[in-house]
Amino acid sequence: MKLERLFGILLILLTEKRVSANYLANYFEVSKRTIYRDIESIELAGIPIITYSGRDGGIELVNNCKIDSHLFGEKEKELIIDSLKLRKTLFEDRSTDLLIKKIEKISDEDIYKQLSKSIDILKFSIIRDEMEIDTKNKLKLLKEAIDEKRIVRFRYTNYYGETILRQVEPLLIRLNNGFWYFNGFCKFRNDFRVFKLTRIRALEITEKTFIPKHENDNNLTYIADYKNCDVVILKFHRAELGKLYDYFTEAEFIEINTESVTVKFKYYHDYNLINFILGFGSSVKIIEPEYLKEKFLGEVEKILKKIKN
């Protein structure tokens, strides 16, 4: 957190004529003493800072250290702002507001009004709003734990419904197939594991720190065993075409006519295809493979049995 604060102070000094220690302390919600220590750290890094006492006193950089308004092109500024907005949406990171303000100050006012109109993020996954809020809170905690290299503790329920208390060294956050996961070294399993955020409960950051273990990236990747797959062909009612565009690429549509839509795609066994098919009810027919038809019928029979009981 100190490093981010130092960078934030430097950005303010690069774009402001002069600021007071009180202003910086209030902005970063720390004491004036902490701000003065931060200023000393910046000076030790070789960045020239001048401090003035008195009523109009304050802290500023020497003139030749100010940011040139042409340091970034307008397209570069737009790219930076879009990236910052994405980070802010995902992690509710207050420091991004500071960076956006700095870009505003080094931009032409008329041009700045036109910046960052191309991307607007409303929702970053396909889950319910309530779950999205919960997931965002977990993302914020995990990002903090990764930055500070602190172990997290939580209850985790796996695919088969087993719940185990875990302590994990978090390493990486990933968005995949509309859901968030994080990779880390699990102390319980003594190995690298991937955890789905929606299956995590009672997440908390501990005081224990760790030195990140560097492992082959193959151990950190998830989500599907790409060799463990089959080719699936499904036929849907023509009325489902709009929905199907949410799930399949143009190349996976092998026939579209006035009555039906047929798709052909690779099915990875890590995904629950039966639930997907059930979601279309009587509007879908399994063409192949044969074992999938049998599996689907078996699931339908279980559902009917529960309804009758």
Helix content: 25-40%
Intertermini distance: 57 Å
Strand order of the largest sheet: 6-5-4-3-7
Strand content: 25-35%
What's the alpha carbon Rg, rounded to whole Å? 27 Å
Instruction: Figure out the total of helices.
Output: 10
Q: Name the overall outline.
A: elongated
Number of DSSP-assigned strands: 11
The succession of helices and strands, N to C, reads HHHEEHHHHEEEEEEHEEHEH
| Tally of separate domains | 3
Roughly what is the average pLDDT, rounded to an integer? 79
Poorly predicted segments: 217-226
- Main sheet: strands, sense, barrel: 5 strands, antiparallel
SS class: alpha+beta
Question: Your description of this structure?
Answer:
It comes from Clostridium ganghwense. Residues 2-57 form the HTH deoR-type domain. It holds the Pfam family WYL. The chain has 309 residues and is α+β, with helices and mostly antiparallel strands. It folds into 3 domains: 2-65, Orthogonal Bundle (Arc Repressor Mutant, subunit A); 144-219, Roll (SH3 type barrels); 229-308, no CATH class. 38% of the residues lie in helices and 26% in strands. It contains 10 helices and 11 strands. The chain has helices spanning 2-15, 21-28, 32-44, 74-91, 95-105, 109-112, 129-148, 241-244, 273-278, 290-308; strands spanning 49-52, 58-61, 150-157, 163-176, 179-186, 191-196, 200-209, 229-237, 253-256, 260-268, 284-288. A hairpin with a 5-residue loop joins strand 1 and strand 2 (58-61).
